[in-house]
Amino acid sequence: NAGVMQNPRHLVRRRGQEARLRCSPMKGHSHVYWYRQLPEEGLKFMVYLQKENIIDESGMPKERFSAEFPKEGPSILRIQQVVRGDSAAYFCASSQGANYGYTFGSGTRLTVV
Amino acid sequence: RKEVEQDPGPFNVPEGATVAFNCTYSNSASQSFFWYRQDCRKEPKLLMSVYSSGNEDGRFTAQLNRASQYISLLIRDSKLSDSATYLCVVTANSGNTPLVFGKGTRLSVIA
Q1: Do B22 and B7 form a contact (C-beta atoms < 8 A)?
Q2: A7-65, pLDDT tens digit by residue?
Q3: Cross-chain residue pair A102–B95, CB shorter than 8 Å
Q4: With an 8 Å Cβ cutoff, is B46 touching chain A?
Q5: Which of the 8 DSSP states describes residue A25?
Q6: Which of residues 39-78 of A touch B (CB under 8 A)?
Q7: Cα(B3)–Cα(B102) distance, rounded to whole angstroms?
Q8: pLDDT tens digit sequence for A75-105
Q9: Which residues of B touch A91 (CB under 8 A)?
């Protein structure tokens, strides 16, 4: 079992470019969560998805950010027109269902220059 | 009031010491509780779930006090490898509520 796979591990983007972060959940997990962690800060919930559905996006900024989890393929977190403040570690986690512990991927460290 | 509050530390303790972390949560509807561990620049990893009756896993003991909305983690006989940030995590049991993480307490175990 390969666990939760995130790629890329590191991503550098210039201001104004788009960032696409990918997450493949653990085998058998249908719940995917995205969290953001700023330097020296805690993990902040962004969005919770199940296959083809956004369950909770209350933590996601209303503009420039979007997420999907298609029927086939990984979950994608997309950030359009990145700004320096988007620089952070973005962690994806998956679980068997609500109220189960999560398994996290290694994260994508986004740097906006 | 923050949903999950922890003392940020750092806690600097010698090897072999016993150290305790505390955490309070604001949502009285919270039903599931966990401790996660996060090493520097790594992903969080589940350390243990926290049950109402308290539970132990080797050198680690977790306690829950629902009346006070308080969770604790006790580490006995600290090892150098215990150095990490410990995250208190809660969720309401309302079906589809994501986990809420505290900012974490940093522990450094010193030789």
Answers
A1: yes
A2: 999 999 999 999 999 999 999 888 999 999 998 788 999 999 998 899 999 999 999 99
A3: no
A4: yes
A5: P
A6: 41-45, 48, 55-56, 59
A7: 8
A8: 999 999 999 999 999 999 999 876 677 899 9
A9: 43-44
